[in-house]
């Protein structure tokens, strides 16, 4: 059963402007510990690849926050939600701390897809209730 759906479109040029103003602090605010490692590696190879990675993660976290119905309110935080790639390349959502507990208590499972082009990154998230009898709304 579908619990929630979220989508987001992010202008990569705005992410670049934020990085120019705030430097790495912006990426460190948005990205979790595993994501920041991937971001730094991609940016070291090609600056634009790092920015695209940051934008897709920003977009996916926005979409996830919409799908769970919390927006950016506790326990949803930028760093508690990571979008990491499985060995196959498929993006997956990994949650930490209070957000992971909140999500598990409700018996939820999330599916995410991300895409980007030169100027835009987009994401789509579907959250399903595995056991509707456990479903607790925010």
TrEMBL record:
Q: Which stretch is the leader sequence?
A: none
The record's Gene Ontology cellular component field reads: cytoplasm
Primary place of residence? cytoplasm
Q: Which locations, inside or outside the cell, does it occupy? A: Cytoplasm
Sorted UniProt keywords: Cytoplasm, Fatty acid biosynthesis, Fatty acid metabolism, Lipid biosynthesis, Lipid metabolism, Magnesium, Metal-binding, Transferase
EC number of this enzyme:
2.7.8.7
SUPFAM superfamilies hit by this protein: 4'-phosphopantetheinyl transferase
- Superkingdom: Bacteria
What this protein catalyses is:
apo-[ACP] + CoA = holo-[ACP] + adenosine 3',5'-bisphosphate + H(+)
**InterPro entries assigned:** 4-PPantetheinyl_Trfase_dom, 4-PPantetheinyl_Trfase_dom_sf, ACPS, Ppantetheine-prot_Trfase_dom
Give the protein's cofactors: Mg(2+)
GO biological process: one example: fatty acid biosynthetic process
Kindly report, in one word, the top-level EC class recorded for this enzyme. transferase
Q: Which GO terms describe its molecular function?
A: holo-[acyl-carrier-protein] synthase activity; magnesium ion binding
Record: residues binding Mg(2+): 8, 62
Q: Which NCBIfam families does the entry mention?
A: acpS, pantethn_trn
Mind telling me which HAMAP family this protein's record contains? Answer: AcpS
Function noted in UniProt: Transfers the 4'-phosphopantetheine moiety from coenzyme A to a Ser of acyl-carrier-protein.
Q: Which family does it belong to?
A: Belongs to the P-Pant transferase superfamily. AcpS family.
> What protein name does the entry list?
Holo-[acyl-carrier-protein] synthase
């Amino acid at each position: 059963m579908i619990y929630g759906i979220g989508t987001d479109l992010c202008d990569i040029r705005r992410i670049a402007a934020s990085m120019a103003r705030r430097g790495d602090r912006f990426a460190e605010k948005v990205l979790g510990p595993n994501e920041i490692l991937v971001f730094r590696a991609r940016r070291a190879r090609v600056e634009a690849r790092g920015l695209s990675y940051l934008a897709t993660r920003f977009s996916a976290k926005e979409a996830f926050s919409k799908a769970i119905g919390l927006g950016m309110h506790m326990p949803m935080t930028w760093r508690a939600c990571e979008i990491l790639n499985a060995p196959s390349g498929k993006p997956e959502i990994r949650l930490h701390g209070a957000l992971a507990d909140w999500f598990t208590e409700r018996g939820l499972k999330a599916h995410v897809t991300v895409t980007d082009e030169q100027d835009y990154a987009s994401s789509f998230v579907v959250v399903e209730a595995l056991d509707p009898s456990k479903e607790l709304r925010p």
